[in-house]
Amino acid sequence: MLENRGIKVDRPTPLDFRQAVQTPDWEQKSMFGCMPPRDLLLTVGSEIRESTTSLRSRWFEYLRYHPLLQRYFQEDPRFRWEAAPKPRLTERTYRRNFWRDFNAKCEEEQLQRTLKKATR
């Protein structure tokens, strides 16, 4: 629909999310799947800031967007691309059940849990 209106649409590179992934610190049986780029990329004018995720299953998700970012970098001399350091997510620092522990029955409980975790 957007292309029919003359709007250029860029699509990320497909990845097989069923594959196992690993780093020297951990191994994951599969990737989570493609989530919205808003979780990883923030666009401000001609700059894109790349963040990282706290889930091992999404650790390599950024690879989907690198070909696009590289192209933007090569085509536009004003384009800035900044990437945050990726966490190691070692057994010592990784909280495997964070999301399960974090789930709340209502918004108020979720806000209270978030506040409690932020003040630790």
Describe this structure in words.
By secondary structure, the protein is an alpha+beta fold. The chain has two domains: 3-89, no CATH class; 96-120, no CATH class. The protein has helices spanning 66-75, 98-102, 107-118; strands spanning 21-22, 27-28, 41-44, 47-50, 80-83. The strands form two sheets. A three-stranded mixed sheet has the order 3-4-5, with no helix packed on it. The protein has a two-stranded antiparallel sheet with strand order 1-2. The longest helix has 12 residues, at 107-118. It is globular, with a radius of gyration of 18 Å. The mean pLDDT is 85.
What is the averaged pLDDT score?
85
Sequence of strands across the biggest β-sheet: 3-4-5
Biggest sheet, in brief? 3 strands, mixed
As residue ranges, the low-confidence spans are none
Q: C-alpha Rg, in Å?
A: 18 Å
Total individual domains: 2
The outline comes out as globular
Terminal CA distance: 48 Å
Strand content: 5-15%
Short description:
The chain has helices at 66-75, 98-102, 107-118; strands spanning 21-22, 27-28, 41-44, 47-50, 80-83. With 120 residues, the protein is an alpha+beta fold. The chain folds into two domains: 3-89, no CATH class; 96-120, no CATH class.
